Each structure stands twice: as structure tokens, then as C-alpha cells.
Amino acid sequence: MVKTQGRRGEVASEILSDVPGRFSIGMRLLALPREPDGRRRELEVEELWPHKGLLVLKFVGVDSISEAETLIGCELQVPSSQRSELQAGWNYVSDLVGCQVLDHGREIGRIAEVQFGAGEAPLLIVSQAGAKQFEVPFAEAYLDRVDLERKQVRMKLPDGLLEVNAPLTPEEKREQAQPARKKRR
């Protein structure tokens, strides 16, 4: 959910579903906070309407701006029992998060998050032990297979892709933060 909207506890949400008319009054949704230790919260849609490219949602029991603010940043999910059947080759983001990513059979890490909007393909944010993360394009050209039963995403990434998309180390960040020094002769 992106922001509060109105004074009665409404929130404006970006909708990533490809299912037309996916949300309805009375529908139950799960709100998942971004913090890993945050708890899911079940919400019931009381009212909804489109507004400036977003969907405004009013939930039962969320009746003030301060209550709505607790939902900002949460991801809304449809309970598994209410999911639509997907076409072959399509996956729910919630099924991908937590999957082990393998590149040519070698483990890279686990999917911590999926980001949209950075290009044609979504980005898998893959975390390794020690907090190192990689941005891996979830592009068909690199995808070997998704095995949700084994919680694995098998890829065939081009050489050097992980190094290009690796985040800066703390040392590299410090070096970049220091002002450039002119050489004296």
C-alpha cells in the first residue's frame, strides 16, 4: 500500500494483479509488512474505487488516518484459496520468495524480494548468507526452470552478470563517499 487517502482510514494501493476486477467488497486480503519479523494481518474490504492509477481501499475496522498509516508499505496478498489459476510459465511472487536460486547448478542464494518496474523483466533480489544481495533479472532468456515443489529457481546466467549487479561493499561505499583528491606534482 502506497499512502493514506482520505480521513476515514482509506489507503491507496498499487495493483500488480493481471486479473481484471480482482478485488471486491467483502473480500478478505492479507497485509504483509516489509519487515521480516512483521505479522500478517487479515483485512476485509469494505469499499473500493479507482483513483489516479491506484486502487483506494477502505477496510473494515480501519477508520482513521493513524490506523491506515500502519498499513503503508504492506504488500496485499490474496489468500491461496482465492487465487486464480495461472497460465503455464507464470508464477505468483509469494511462491517465488524464499526459493533457492541456482545458476548452472551452483547456489547463489534465496529470493528475498521481487521488484517490478526496473525494466522489461522483474528483478529477483537474491540474498546470500552474510547479507550480500544480487539483482537477477527474472527473464525467460536466463530461466532454465522453476520448481515450486522443491522451492528452486534454476537459471543460466551470462558470465559476469552477478558481479555487475552486486551491491557495493561497505568499503566501496566509503571510497565513493570520500571527495576526490587532486594529485600534486
List the helices and strands and how they pair.
Elements: E1 3-4, E2 11-13, E3 28-32, E4 41-51, E5 54-59, H1 65-69, E6 75-77, H2 93-96, E7 100-103, E8 106-115, E9 123-127, E10 133-137, E11 143-147, E12 152-155, H3 161-164, H4 170-177
Parallel strand pairs: 7-12
Antiparallel strand pairs: 1-2, 2-5, 3-4, 3-6, 4-5, 7-8, 8-9, 9-10, 11-12
Radius of gyration, rounded? Answer: 20 Å
Tell me the major beta sheet: 6 strands, antiparallel
Poorly predicted regions: none
Structural class: mainly beta
What's the name of the CATH homologous superfamily of the largest domain?
Answer: RimM
CATH topology of the largest domain: Elongation Factor Tu (Ef-tu), domain 3
Condensed summary:
The protein has 185 residues and is mainly beta. The protein is 11% helix and 34% strand. The longest helix is centred in the last third of the chain and has 8 residues, at 170-177.
Key descriptive features of the protein:
single chain; 185 residues; mainly beta; Elongation Factor Tu (Ef-tu), domain 3; 6-stranded antiparallel β-sheet
Structure, explained:
The protein has 2 domains: 3-81, RimM (Elongation Factor Tu (Ef-tu), domain 3); 93-160, SH3 type barrels. It is globular, with a radius of gyration of 20 Å. The longest helix is centred in the last third of the chain and has 8 residues, at 170-177. The chain has helices at residues 65-69, 93-96, 161-164, 170-177, and strands at residues 3-4, 11-13, 28-32, 41-51, 54-59, 75-77, 100-103, 106-115, 123-127, 133-137, 143-147, 152-155. It starts with a strand and ends in an 8-residue tail after the last helix. It has 185 residues and is mainly β. The protein is built from 4 helices and 12 strands; from the N terminus they run βββββαβαββββββαα.
